[in-house]
Amino acid sequence: MVKEYIASNKDRFLSELFDWLRIPSVSADSRHKGDVRKAAEFLREKFSQAGVDKVEICETKGHPIVFAEKIVNPALPTVLVYGHYDVQPPDPLNLWTSPPFEPVIKDDKIYARGACDDKGQVYMHVKAFETMMKLNLLPCNVKFMVEGEEEVGSDNLGTFVKENKAKLKADIILISDTALISLEHPSITTGLRGLSYMEVEVTGPNRDLHSGVYGGAVANPVNVLCSMIDALHDENGRITIPGFYDKVAELTAAQRKALNDAPFDLEEYKHELGITEIKGEKGYTTLERTGVRPTLDVNGIWGGYTGEGAKTVLPSKAHAKISMRLVPNQVSTEITELFTKHFQSLAPKYVTVKVMAHHGGEPAVTSTDSPAYQAASRAFEDVFGKTPIPTRDGGSIPIVALFKKELGLDTVLLGFGFDTDAIHSPNEHYGVKNFVMGIETIVSFYKHFVKK
Amino acid sequence: MVKEYIASNKDRFLSELFDWLRIPSVSADSRHKGDVRKAAEFLREKFSQAGVDKVEICETKGHPIVFAEKIVNPALPTVLVYGHYDVQPPDPLNLWTSPPFEPVIKDDKIYARGACDDKGQVYMHVKAFETMMKLNLLPCNVKFMVEGEEEVGSDNLGTFVKENKAKLKADIILISDTALISLEHPSITTGLRGLSYMEVEVTGPNRDLHSGVYGGAVANPVNVLCSMIDALHDENGRITIPGFYDKVAELTAAQRKALNDAPFDLEEYKHELGITEIKGEKGYTTLERTGVRPTLDVNGIWGGYTGEGAKTVLPSKAHAKISMRLVPNQVSTEITELFTKHFQSLAPKYVTVKVMAHHGGEPAVTSTDSPAYQAASRAFEDVFGKTPIPTRDGGSIPIVALFKKELGLDTVLLGFGFDTDAIHSPNEHYGVKNFVMGIETIVSFYKHFVKK
């Protein structure tokens, strides 16, 4: 009956999602401020059409938060669904095979920025809610909080949560912003990495210089920045920041085994990425490197002449964006401070260095024996016919730690994407099957969660 | 009489030069192709007004070459003046205090892209020629060859020279594209560095990846490029490319002494550049590092997300423009090959590396006891009241070596800029005094050169 309703409304569900995907809600780019709000208003509209009691656009210092709720009976449990309607910048645009904000279906996948991260996954909840309302199956209360700043660090969400504890009162958090191993191997993410995102600026001479007249006699800030970045890892792929690993929780042998029992094909992994060799911290597997080990990556670098042709310039400045993924029990504010101190200490006296912090988030681990996790596990069994495998995800959803801290609530990460969905990349996509089975699984979750 | 003519026509000379500077003849940027030609046509016009026998715009595969000549008497010696009318790109635009192509005079300096390099210095020759014609003082034949591709490697000049040896027949080359120590310490450049300009591309995964999902498990091409660039210098500031120094001519103790006798104030140098420490190859002075030692500088680097805000991307590609300044007797084609081999050898197997050569040029040393150099020396004495100091310049004018090889001609580098004129930088400028005294010195050079 649920299956039937979803099947017969699938095309409408998709066309609604497409309308939402056409709104370029890029939170990082101030030129899209208006589009971000449009995306919020679109969502408000869909919530009210789906039958919530109330829905509101809550202003913040940045982009707004959409809050909606349906209270069936105050005595019943309450599920709080979190997601985000903002998306990553689409560049490099030239690598998209179809325009990022003109969604299309190719071999049963939706191609568009935000298709998977996170509009597509949020919209499964909107349509699961509609389904339960239409079929009179909603067994408990539900609240929705969908923000517009997840891709830029959820700067204003903390304040909102602190100031609205009563409004957000619930029994469990449900988030669909993670990935499955595959449709054959459903999985539930039980761990997330934290984040410290930094930007650095290295300044040499007070102006761009002629590299012939000055080259060899004056430190080149690009060369210096490269040396400083190189110094952030040692020959074993470990990060050299003093104290960086102090709080890292090492897994037990059993935990490591469980983690590595997840199906993983290294050859397939390399083939899909077009690489012949992987690289990472010595002594750990790929699943451990992405799941339970902290990392440091340069996300962007620029300096000097980057245009067409050749310019013999010795630049005045060089810049880089550098982010670190954190694991339990690292604390992002502490790591940000350790990075800043260390990077400054790496600066030779012939340059000056500025270090700025963009944003951070805390790592999180969720329990696998909570009733909510068990309900999610059964829901997967209903729809996928298999018990989901608990996995660790390399990404970050800082809200999970925030929820625990501020509301004392656990989270279930009911994600339906694939790691290969190219989120944050050109040609982001999301399987239509994932979308449909996701809706079914969410409906089934409510059933098991409330079942006495 | 010469002084008077120049003084009474100075304002016109400057306003003509300003008209030329307003044409953005940026040879590196294809969008300015038309402007480059406009600048050539402007020059043709000024040559014919100044009284040459003939002037022509010679087509090449790239930007055209302006050739002009005045044959007084085939029995007399011939001076061949070389220069270039193309300019460097003006970016970063936001650092200019006045628009690069709207010349203005501020505290007796002309501010504009090309004011010194090389339109301002070329125009001294045009006006020196006009002066000699008007005052009936031209003592010999003169030819002018002004190209439009010097800032992008003079790709088509070699062919032009090879194919026009008769047309270019002369006794000496005169080039004004270098700098003086100061008006109090006039100097003549007797050595120039060569150049190899490379571009490299490092590719990791076949697409930009989410740095959370893949970070720590897949090599980041930006981090890898930084390590490779860092590996190009050792702890003594020496370049690590095998064979790089094999052909470098070491100076004799006497030559080093002469070179270091040139007035140089390190504190003033650092102060003017806004740095507290210099950096360079161990065991050499600043004048040696810029004058007689080869160098390697990153001229530009880019990769990943460089826009506003934060994007947690593990980029697919990273790029850099890297140039090397060469000294006698290094050969740019050989160095280009050594760099390519070495850079490829530095590539770890988890990335692929592409190395492309932009352009190169050979180093050159000019004699100080030729009659032409002596004539130049006397000309400086006439106008500056001091014997010029022979110096080595860090820049490159590949044409000097080319002329020697193809036409068997020596060059006199009669340059009137300052190292601090910010050529290739924002706020390039050229002293009005330098411009005026330059014209006087050029006129005086002809007198001494032809004097029996």
Automatic annotation (TrEMBL), chains A, B:
Alphabetically ordered keywords of this record: Hydrolase, Metal-binding, Protease
Pfam families linked to this entry: M20_dimer (PF07687), Peptidase_M20 (PF01546)
Domain Peptidase M20 dimerisation: 191-350
InterPro entries: Cyt/Met_Dipeptidase, Peptidase_M20, Peptidase_M20_dimer
Highest taxon in the source lineage: Bacteria
GO biological process: proteolysis
Gene3D superfamilies found in the cross-reference section: 3.30.70.360, Zn peptidases
GO molecular function, one term: metal ion binding
Protein name: Dipeptidase
Organism: Chryseolinea soli
Taxonomic lineage of the native organism: Bacteria, Pseudomonadati, Bacteroidota, Cytophagia, Cytophagales
